[in-house]
Design goal:
By secondary structure, the chain is mainly alpha-helical. The protein folds into two domains: 120 residues, Winged helix-like DNA-binding domain superfamily/Winged helix DNA-binding domain (Arc Repressor Mutant, subunit A, Orthogonal Bundle); 57 residues, no CATH class. Helix content is 51%, strand content 7%. A three-stranded antiparallel beta sheet has the order 1-3-2. α1 crosses α5.
């Protein structure tokens, strides 16, 4: 059986993707440092800001942020020390614990959104041309559907969108833990 290897263009594409996946979180962390947040902490605060009552079960928050429960617990503890998040018993399930965004946490999230948006534009979007954002969305969707065999992000029946897309909560899929929510409370 002949050895299966990647072609040179495939190797380049994969190497560039891996480099981007390594560099982007660090670059976002650097840009969010003036707000005293990492990019992961920002994502966690954003998820809580968008959640009903600014609270989520830790397990749902782990899914929403694509974190292990151990990592999430460490970060929630750090945010608790900063006064941005509190843990509270879950009224619906005594075995579960909720993370609750404090008023200070909501203020920090709101104040850091501009930094985050500016960083995303500077690091990613401003370097793309007219149809490139749509092409990036198409390509990342194609990879995401391969990486998400259990449809945690809920690929729609038409195969054109997934639960990670903002505003996509089709009847076939329903709400997904990864969906950014548009609400007055988050604004």
């Amino acid at each position: 059986m002949p050895e299966v290897v990647l072609t040179q263009p495939e190797r380049i594409a994969v190497a560039r993707l891996q480099a981007m996946l390594e560099l982007l979180p660090t670059a976002l962390d650097r840009e969010l440092a003036p707000a005293g947040l990492t990019s992961f902490e920002f994502t966690l605060l954003e998820a809580l800001a968008e959640a009903d009552g600014h609270r989520m079960r830790l397990s749902a928050l782990a899914t929403r942020t694509n974190a292990t429960l151990a990592r999430l617990s460490r970060v929630v503890t750090s945010l608790e020390r900063k006064g941005l998040v509190e843990r509270a018993a879950c009224a619906a399930d005594a075995r579960a614990t909720n993370a609750v965004l404090t008023d200070a946490g909501l203020d920090t999230y709101r104040e850091s959104r501009r930094l985050h948006a500016d960083a995303v534009r500077t690091l990613i979007l401003d370097g793309l041309g007219g149809g490139d954002v749509d092409e990036l969305a198409r390509l990342t969707f194609a990879v995401l559907t391969r990486l998400d065999p259990h449809a945690r992000f809920g690929v729609t029946a038409d195969g054109q969108s997934c639960g990670a897309d903002p505003g996509v909560n089709s009847p076939e899929v329903g709400p997904c833990a990864a969906d950014p929510v548009v609400s007055a409370a988050a604004g």
